Amino acid sequence: xxxxxxxxxxxxxxxxxxxxxxxxxxxxxxxxxxxxxxxxxxxxxxxxxxxxxxxxxxxxxxxxxxxxxxxxxxxxxxxxxxxxxxxxxxxxxxxxxxxxxxxxxxxxxxxxxxxxxxxxxxxxxxxxxxxxxxxxxxxxxxxxxxxxxxxxxxxxxxxxxxxxxxxxxxxxxxxxxxxxxxxxxxxxxxxxxxxxxxxxxxxxxxxxxxxxxxxxxxxxxxxxxxxxxxxxxxxxxxxxxxxxxxxxxxxxxxxxxxxxxxxxxxxxxxxxxxxxxxxxxxxxxxxxxxxxxxxxxxxxxxxxxxxxxxxxxxxxxxxxxxxxxxxxxxxxxxxxxxxxxxxxxxxxxxxxxxxxxxxxxxxxxxxxxxxxxxxxxxxxxxxxxxxxxxxxxxxxxxxxxxxxxxxxxxxxxxxxxxxxxxxxxxxxxxxxxxxxxxxxxxxxxxxxxxxxxxxxxxxxxxxxxxxxxxxxxxxxxxxxxxxxxxxxxxxxxxxxxxxxxxxxxxxxxxxxxxxxxxxxxxxxxxxxxxxxxxxxxxxxxxxxxxxxxxxxxxxxxxxxxxxxxxxxxxxxxxxxxxxxxxxxxxxxxxxxxxxxxxxxxxxxxxxxxxxxxxxxxxxxxxxxxxxxxxxxxxxxxxxxxxxxxxxxxxxxxxxxxxxxxxxxxxxxxxxxxxxxxxxxxxxxxxxxxxxxxxxxxxx
Length: 699
Fold this sequence. Notes:
Elements: H1 6-26, H2 33-73, H3 80-113, H4 118-154, H5 159-203, H6 215-252, H7 263-283, H8 294-324, H9 330-353, H10 358-365, H11 371-384, H12 387-403, H13 410-425, H14 428-450, H15 455-501, H16 514-555, H17 570-584, H18 586-641, H19 651-687, H20 689-695
Helix pairs in contact: 1-4, 1-7, 2-3, 2-6, 2-17, 3-4, 3-5, 3-6, 3-14, 4-5, 4-6, 4-7, 4-14, 5-6, 5-16, 5-17, 5-18, 5-19, 6-7, 6-13, 6-14, 6-15, 6-17, 6-19, 7-8, 8-9, 9-12, 9-13, 9-15, 10-11, 10-18, 11-18, 11-19, 12-13, 12-15, 13-15, 14-15, 15-18, 15-19, 16-17, ...
């Protein structure tokens, strides 16, 4: 039996489930005319942004296509690479686009469904999130299947050449993901921060009040940043972990390279297909009762994820045993290591960011003494929260390496690390559904507020939104952990690539080598520079929104007073956010692509390895810190808005709003983007390896 067939079958099954959920969501009523009107404005703004963003991205991809074609003509690459780059970027962008289209169609429907019950609102929002999750998985497996069968059976390439070519299309996916995350992240946080600072802090009006000119832009941002951007992000994480493991499998099991359907390549591909089946089953286990608290809602979502993880753990055993035999069951241990690490990181992230637990409650308590103590507490919380996830990742690396046989065969150990990342991401369809349902619930709450629906509806959507903040933080922590493992696997793939291109070249990775040392320092600095660029961009864009909202409050007579017939100019704020995001998203992406190339041309392959390691170490820390600080500040605000410490309008609430505005760009722009930076740097290094070998100054 050719178990590789699980990959295309998994793709078809995932995409069929996407269609099922789209039909399911669209059957729910859209709501009253006011709800439909607000939802249409959000949808129009999101579509306009993505259209303009994809136009800019297309220009960048066209330039890169020319560069890669020139390199192929000069024999630095195969001719498959330029086109694999394009398909990777296309499917990554398409994943985000499909998820965003349904999210903007589901927001009003979720608000309307919440009129009946909390569980019904959860089902609509989660079904919309499932479209995002399973679109990513389905398109990822489809892209992998097309290239595998095309290269292997049409062009008759050996398995080593197949995996080398497939590895490079991850560069296209990562590039598209970074554009989507950075551009969408700048848009959403500029609108969010601007709306909160003027509306909630200065004017004292509620969040999502229709009088606020930035309120539509804020809701548009939830879709273009937290849905479209996240979809593109997770697509590249998912595909990257699989192709890295396949490439490492070729090096670890050379005895199978002439075997049709190499077991080392089949295992990660088949695991992904099996993951689709179990996560679809797990999605039907998620439901809750009316008046459920945060702990109950979290348990409902965790039920489906835990089932999927256990099922993958069980089914992976016969897969490894059948493909490799009992002598290589250590590979199964590496898969379990990744699954346990993913669950562990999720639980720790939940502990530090959910207002059900002590850290976020203590953070909310700090608002009683002002904004400064809240900011200090949030920064501290984020920093301390990096320790346990790092220990978990380190334990997973060591366990995976040695149980896979790394002590006797280092290539086998590296394959174990790669396959553990695949294990961690094998439940991605459901993990991403948990994550992306949050923006739908957030939009639903905003629509309920703007349309003046019953307070009970807003109470239910707020419960779903608060849960969404936690699941989003959990999803980010989960993917940052998987990103670190994938980045390590890609670094190993880069070293293998250098050895394949020039077997006589000797990589000197000794720490005493100044080229490695300088590379480490440059790599450690890169995430800090990258984060600074993103924070500055959000701050500048938010300033423009603050000025515009103040202007409208001042110049549009009767707007702030809520005079009938007076409406804010929502389109102006949407346009400001769009122009700012598109203008400022290019430089960080260019930096991510150019840094490993420039380092390689100066310091050679050894310097590049140093850069990638330094970037992975500091980037992982910054990504976890920013994501968890931001998530905790957000939920501390929600905790106060639920009636604690004086509730809405209190001094504690005003301090919490400021803390949330600081945390917003950290958790939704910087943290997720750094996760992509780690993998994109490695992907670029692999694609440009031959060029660097030929023209490096010191290498």
